[in-house]
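Worked Example 4.2. Consider the chain below.
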Amino acid sequence: MTEPGPDATDAEVTKYYDQCRQSTDGGDSQPVQRPERLEITISVRFTPGEIAAIRTRAQDAGLKPTAYIRRCALAEEVPPIDRGQLSRSVDALSRNLEDLRRAAG
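Applying the procedure from the previous section yields the following structure tokens:
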């Protein structure tokens, strides 16, 4: 039986604790700790297309949209790709490669 994580619903947490209580056989039981309660709310606005994509991704991950957004926001930060800078770098490399071809040919 796996302990519910911070994204678990109240119903999932209740079910887990009920199962823990039922599985004790009168021996020494270990105290069960509840996950930290989520108390702070922030507002984020999405376009209809964005929220549809988030809902689809959350469903594919087996999560509610709020849990999915929380996990994504707290995931290890990967810097976003600067597509403009990437495009400029590729253009510069292409020009350098073309200059080398002309010089060699």
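Residues 35 and 63 are 17 Å apart (CA to CA). The chain has four helices and no strands. Compare this with Example 4.1 before moving on.
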